[in-house]
Amino acid sequence: MLDIEALRLWIEQNPEWISISVFCIAFLESFAGIGLLIPGVILLAMVAVIANMVNVSSLEIIIWCYLGACIADILSFLIGHYFRNKVTNIWPFSKYPESLFKAKSLVKTYGIYAILIGRFIGPIRPVLPIIAGTLSMPKNKFIAIDLLSGIPWSCFYILPSYYLAASITNDFLGWPYLLGVIFLILTLSVVRKYFQ
After folding, report:
1. What are the tens digits of pLDDT across the range 81-113?
2. pLDDT tens-digit readout, 57-74
3. Other beta carbons within 10 Å of 33
4. How far is CA 168 from CA 9, 92, 171, 177, 192, in A?
5. Within the chain, where are the H helices?
6. What is the torsion angle, in degrees rounded to the nearest 10, for the CA atoms of residue 151, residue 157, residue 159 and residue 165?
7. Which are the contacts of 187, defined by CB distance < 8 A and separation ≥ 6?
8. What is the value of pTM for the model shown?
9. pLDDT tens digits, one per residue of 161-175
């Protein structure tokens, strides 16, 4: 059986594994198509809670989340740029054609704004960068908007869980912040439902 206290002690002695975990989860959550297959948002929330419990700073976790997601997005864009029209025949994209269709329609209609806002829309988030690459969006433009949109994305996916854990353990500043976290979660769920 899993000894939670022993696990917590090990994590406290090896906090670098939290940063590595956040980077890897954010990378997989954002990488071309893989994000369709793993529950990355839930895993990021769990790691954020653990990070708070062992006193790893929220800024450190956000930075690693940001780096993992942006690197995955840029690699996905380059894959799309390289393969162009062959993407629809490659697994896992061939298995999820509806996500590809939605992403392509969004990028064609809204261009760079699709990359900015689409990052927060679950089923198309991991395919938007590769679609942008297949549609020959200028690399510099994509990278600039991706790096910019990665900041709020990382905050939205890390801070609510991190601060919720802090409020539960009484290490936090109080109810106003907890209500702010709840508001962010509700806002994200409304945005996701609206765009699905």
Report:
1. 888 777 667 766 677 677 677 777 878 888 888
2. 888 999 999 999 999 999
3. 21
4. 20, 39, 8, 12, 27
5. 4-13, 16-30, 40-53, 58-83, 97-110, 112-118, 128-134, 139-168, 175-195
6. -160
7. none
8. 0.77
9. 888 777 666 555 555
Tokens for 7, please give them.
């696990």
Q: Which of 125, 182, 191 has its CA nearest to residue 159?
A: 182
Distance of alpha carbon 176 from the chain centroid: 25
Within 13 A of 155's CA, how many CA atoms are on the CB side? 8
Residue 105 tokens, joined: 């329609």
Q: Which amino acid is at 11?
A: I
Q: Angle, to 10 degrees, between the axis of helix 16-30 and the axis of helix 58-83?
A: 30
Distance CA 81, CA 177 (A): 42
Peptide bond into 160 cis (omega under 30): no
Tokens 């960068």 belong to 129
- Domain definitions of the chain by residue range: 4-195
d(CA 83, CA 28): 20
| DSSP code, position 37 | T
What's the gap between Cα 111 and its chain centre?
A: 20
